[in-house]
Design goal:
Number of strands: 5
Helix content: 10-25%
CATH architecture: Beta Barrel
Distance between the termini: 68 Å
Number of domains: 1
Structural class: alpha+beta
CATH class: Mainly Beta
Strand content: 35-45%
Order of helices and strands: HEEEHEE
Length: 97
């Protein structure tokens, strides 16, 4: 019985320590506002936004329909650069030609 209780406590402690290891994105007040012009390319659910000088991973929490932008050619977007899972990502708020 003691071994069962001890095993349960160890499992609970381990799950508590690992609970915060999910996605961590600075969505609320943090992030650098940007206005960019470039193209969107998607492979499955992973999309990238490419400008003349840089390439950004597009955050899956973007408000714009990102896969639709991939077929639109060059687009102008506004949004913000955030840190998500240790990488810099672009959250697209608005997009247009």
């Amino acid at each position: 019985m003691k071994k069962l209780i001890l095993a349960s406590l160890l499992t609970l402690a381990a799950s508590t320590l690992l609970a915060g290891e999910g996605k961590s994105c600075e969505m609320k007040s943090k992030g650098k506002p940007v206005s960019l012009s470039g193209t969107v390319a998607c492979k499955g659910d992973d999309c990238t936004f490419t400008t003349a000088k840089s390439t950004y991973a597009v955050c899956e929490m973007s408000k714009a329909d990102v896969p639709k932008l991939a077929s639109a050619g060059t687009v102008n977007v506004t949004g913000k650069l955030i840190t998500c899972e240790g990488k810099q990502k672009l959250v697209i708020d608005k997009a247009g030609k």
